[in-house]
Amino acid sequence: MTGTQGRLLTASAMLLFTGMAWAHGDHGDAAPLGGGSFMTGFLHPFTGWDHVVAMVAVGLWGAFLGRPAIWVLPIVFPLVMAFGGFLGLVGVPIPGIEVGIALSAVVLGLMVAAAARPPLWVAAVLVGGFAIFHGHAHGTELPSAADPLLYSLGFVLATGLMHAGGIAFGLLTRWPAGRWAVRAGGGLIGLVGLSFLLAATT
Hints:
The protein is mostly helical.
């Protein structure tokens, strides 16, 4: 591996784990993050590792699959997530939210680790299905004083940035060593998701 490739790997790994230090243990605890509705919505996705790793995995898988998945998946996820957020906001119940969020990290991480290349529509349906759970969790956590539109714009933008981090890391597949690093990153995401899944089901 050249020095340039090493620097790219290091920078991408930092992007992969950006926001994990903001972890919180309970989605029902939406601590005040300040800065108004937009900033509250923007910062909130960074407060849960389960959200972070799954959203990064979407960009990672998209980059691994290449065009057009590299831009289709990161568009599908926030659009469907916004719909899920609306369902949560208006009180439409969806069972197993925490399990669904944890499963998203497990499944998407494993897709990358296994170098899975399903048809684009299958990948989009899978990503969109998991986005419902993430959006619903954010919608139910919407602070009563927040502006729903600004809050939603904030968390959709934050989601896009996490996808971008995953894409940046996923671009390492251009090099043989980078391909293995990306697959290893997917495996790590799957393991993190498994730990959340075990916590949600015990």
